[in-house]
């Protein structure tokens, strides 16, 4: 299958591209810079120059492919406006990709976060949030899944709060970055809230399986660790960086503060049983041992 991938040179995207190429697919990768184009080419993909805001380029990429995996997102969480702009850009891009695939029965695999379910681990049947700082992403993904009734084999891979590789990535990566800047490895509240996690290379396998097998209109959980307490995550970060570990105000995390403070474990039991996905790479706490001071 020839697959058009957005975000193919990031932490998750590079793992997805390698997984696709290693399993007989070819990849057309959106590349917003010359450096990204070189990275895609080096990985074995064909670069297509353009960014997420270049809707004509997205249309061309979708038309040249047998399927699409969308991963690109600006990941600018510096302010509420920045988050809103990133969500709006992604919404326009996904709407464009979906419209190009209507009536084709080709797969469109997109991404969202795992939802929170008070008092228990969330499952694949729980709806994603459609309000809050990133609620717009939930609304957009829901609209993409609804394209199942218009001849698109759409599916969503829900990623946990941290997708990691070699100690880098996700919300744990945000904690690490703030710790390096502030001199304190912090966690909001009492740190008992749990975050699910997955290794990037395990997540990549699930993206491929969704592309190849997922029925239209379905959602899947790329969750390996159901939920590590945030204070345990901060403790490893603090030990590896030689920093004190302590509770910090929720406001430390800007617009993501309410999400960081929430307990949000998640299950992937249905995904594993249905698609045969089985994570095999190190869990988050073990992977964070790779952090360097």
From TrEMBL:
Gene Ontology CC, one term: cytoplasm
One Pfam family of this chain: Epimerase
The organism's place on the tree of life at top rank: Bacteria
Region annotation (Disordered) ranges: 112-137
UniProt cross-references to PANTHER family, sorted A to Z: NAD(P)-BINDING DOMAIN-CONTAINING PROTEIN-RELATED, PROTEIN YEEZ
An annotated Gene Ontology molecular function: aldehyde dehydrogenase (NAD+) activity
Domain spans labelled NAD-dependent epimerase/dehydratase: 3-215
Gene3D superfamilies: NAD(P)-binding Rossmann-like Domain
Listed SUPFAM superfamilies: NAD(P)-binding Rossmann-fold domains (SSF51735)
Protein name: 3-beta hydroxysteroid dehydrogenase
InterPro entries hit by this protein: Epimerase_deHydtase, NAD(P)-bd_dom_sf, NAD(P)-dependent_oxidoreduct
